[in-house]
Please model this.
Amino acid sequence: MSGAQALLDAWEQVDHDGAPRSAAAAANFYLDFLPEIPGDNTPHIALWERDGTPDGILVGRLGVRRPVVRIGKWQFPMPRLRTLNITEGGLEARTTATAQRQAEYLRQLLEGGTIDCISVFRVPLDSEPGRILAQGLRKAGDGNPELIGHWYTELTDRQGCPVQPNSAKTRSAFRRKDRKLLQTFNGRVEVRELRSRDQLADFIRISARIGEASYQQGIGVGVQDNAWWARILGIHADNGSLRGYLLEADGENIAYLVGTLISGTFTLIATSFLPQYRAVGPGAFMLRRVIERLQQDGVRWLDYGVGDYSYKELHGTWRRENATLNLYGTSPAARLASILDTTGKKINRALYRVLKAGGMLERLKRLRRHLAERSGSSQPDQPPQQ
Model:
């Protein structure tokens, strides 16, 4: 653990030329987070140097897992695999030469027989390692990459000056929407910021109750009042990176947003609002106030995470394409898993094309959200007060 920490610290001391930093692979989070992942996990950190200076990093964990193949809503277990899981933001290189050395390292791990699978989570395809993996580590299409958008907002420039991401017309529309919310609550609106551990229990409790009333409860996302969320947010609180926000309107907490601030990048972890106030846009109101505060503090980037949601497209200034892929070795278990994985993904992609072409995909999403919100509406409308 001490050796892994030293390598992570060395990498973070390098000048990354103002690029967004990943909270998941941060030195002050990743190793503390490992015990929360089910199973036995050993840190696997590799650092590449060029002319005596860190030039690339691999942040992952070794373990034995039994992944599943998902076809629609059904799941089928695969063989147990000795796996190297490379976390999001955990495969970076500053130069093409180092990225090529990393690729050769991954090939040797798979050919050596000690690892059945290398899972790479959300590597940006415009990065040096991403370009190589997009072409195939060993052959074209290797790993059956699944692509998803990842949105950011550039908050300040390299000199620390605020960047205006929207046009004058869009900003005018934002102000009208903000006035509508303020008028609804007679101007009694406040965004409260929480950072410390002694504030965390109340923040989790209030945020969880807001989420219970929304569609997020039905799909199992957002802050929940349990030990896992207390531990994860507690790690961020202890290292000083936690940023939690509550939108209080006329004495009622109607929205929350929580994230982590690491190396000039604020990463949004979760957000939600009470659905009965949807018409006045509490979620968007809070996001804009948080953006303003982050700009005042000189924060460089806001990382929204993956997914092409409308609010990200509206406020985001940069969309990257990320890929998640599974690279399999040569053992019998690995070969079988590769066949099952490839078959499942082909079926899912075919189903997706059929549903999208027939207009069913959007209707199913709306129905899922409606049913989830109806389920959440059985919860009390008023979250408990502090």
Notes: Residues 156-299 form a domain with the Aminopeptidase fold (CATH 3.40.630.30). The chain has two domains: 2-149+320-356, 156-299.
